[in-house]
Amino acid sequence: MQLLLEKIRQQGIVLPNNVLKVDSFINHQMDPQLMKEIGKEFARRFQNEGVTKILTIESSGIAPAIMTALVMNVPVIFAKKRKPLTLTEHAYTSSVYSYTKQETNIISVSKDYLKSNDTVLIIDDFLANGEAALGLINIVNEAQAKVAGIGIVIEKSFQEGAKKITNKGYRLESLARIASLENGTVTFYHEHSLKV
């Protein structure tokens, strides 16, 4: 997805410890036109999977999930990181460690919104170590629903997340795959493979 790659190259900021800051267009301030195109691309890639629900995690996954759901005409569920008083024991839960925030959260989804006959597309903004995606997969499995696949806006291909997901047999579609953030420079996977 060329538009996304250009945005990352122009506005992405590489921070220490392999962190890519994209908060000027994805997860603090958002570019609605870019989000619209991201939604259309995920919908195109998963159009034949019979998706009935889209599942994401708060908060950065919500925008691409909503845009995808808009095109696919299905509801979005987002896993909450802090269990509100209104969400009683009637919930699916999973433990997720955040590499960026260095903290563990128990994420939860109400059993009212995820049923065993659902086919669920998981959408998130980043894939690094795979903890968020695996936590969402656990929730879908707990509901005895079907995982249609995992759609990721930006994948850090040099970390273990993609391998963990694909080794479990799940379909993974990443719109931008980053091979390296070495020396403060973003190198995309297709560029890296050309150099090797």
Automatic annotation (TrEMBL):
Gene3D superfamilies tied to this protein: 3.40.50.2020
Binding site for 5-phospho-alpha-D-ribose 1-diphosphate: A128, N129, G130, E131, A132
Domain Phosphoribosyltransferase span(s) in chain numbering: 32-166
EC class: transferase
InterPro entries: PRTase-like, PRTase_dom, Pur/Pyrimidine_PRTase, Xanthine_PRibTrfase
Cellular localisation: Cytoplasm
One example of a Gene Ontology biological process annotation: XMP salvage
Pathway the protein takes part in: Purine metabolism; XMP biosynthesis via salvage pathway; XMP from xanthine: step 1/1
CDD domains membership: PRTases_typeI
Catalytic activity: XMP + diphosphate = xanthine + 5-phospho-alpha-D-ribose 1-diphosphate
GO MF terms, alphabetically ordered: xanthine phosphoribosyltransferase activity
Family the UniProt entry places it in: Belongs to the purine/pyrimidine phosphoribosyltransferase family. Xpt subfamily.
NCBIfam families attached to this UniProt entry: PRK09219.1 (NF006671), XPRTase (TIGR01744)
Protein name, entry field: Xanthine phosphoribosyltransferase
